[in-house]
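pls design
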């Protein structure tokens, strides 16, 4: 075949491939984003806000307890058989990993089971060996607990079981800065080293 027809044939093949690719992209785009569906954008998460609760000493507290220190906020309950104690033990190890920086980190444990988690029950639970020292335990009326959970976008739900009930709930720890603002989620299962690294990085970036 002469050279000129070969060049023309190759150019036609390339043009056809471009047309097919364009048509495929258009079809997929239409399937992924229908015309009546708004474009989703992602900004800073709206997590945290006002709350009115009581601590394990019976003292009335609000969101101002988050000020002046970095805070790891965690929702759980004292009858939790696994996730809650594991998370608290992990946070104890995190404070060990942070060394001197741990002095600027407090832990707030908010109960999602106000029916059983009285201030006294929280005080007894948080004194468990292996848990971090100085954890602030919070509880309140069902309405107060619901308002706090809603502020942090936390899911929880009572689930009946043989001999009583348990609570299903979110597992994320929320890192808040000294102004009481949400910084980053600390996912369950990250482990002490990765969690400490995330907290240390947030502290250092804020100080830079």
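designed seq:
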């Amino acid at each position: 075949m002469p050279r000129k027809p070969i060049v023309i044939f190759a150019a036609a093949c390339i043009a056809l491939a471009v047309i097919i690719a364009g048509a495929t992209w258009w079809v997929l785009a239409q399937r992924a984003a229908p015309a009546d569906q708004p474009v989703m954008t992602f900004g800073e998460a709206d997590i945290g806000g006002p709350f009115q609760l009581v601590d394990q000493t019976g003292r009335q507290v609000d969101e101002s307890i988050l000020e002046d220190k970095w805070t790891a906020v965690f929702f759980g309950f004292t009858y939790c058989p696994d996730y809650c104690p594991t998370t608290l033990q992990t946070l104890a190890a995190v404070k060990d990993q942070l060394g001197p920086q741990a002095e600027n980190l407090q832990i707030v444990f908010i109960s999602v089971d106000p029916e059983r988690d009285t201030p006294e029950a929280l005080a007894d639970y948080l004194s468990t060996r292996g848990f971090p020292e100085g954890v602030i335990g919070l509880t309140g009326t069902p309405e107060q607990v619901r308002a706090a959970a809603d502020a942090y976008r936390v899911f929880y739900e009572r689930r009946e079981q043989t001999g009583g009930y348990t609570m299903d709930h979110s597992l994320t720890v929320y890192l808040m800065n000294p102004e009481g603002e949400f910084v980053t989620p600390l996912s369950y299962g990250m482990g002490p080293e990765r969690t400490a690294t995330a907290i240390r990085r947030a502290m250092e970036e804020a100080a830079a």
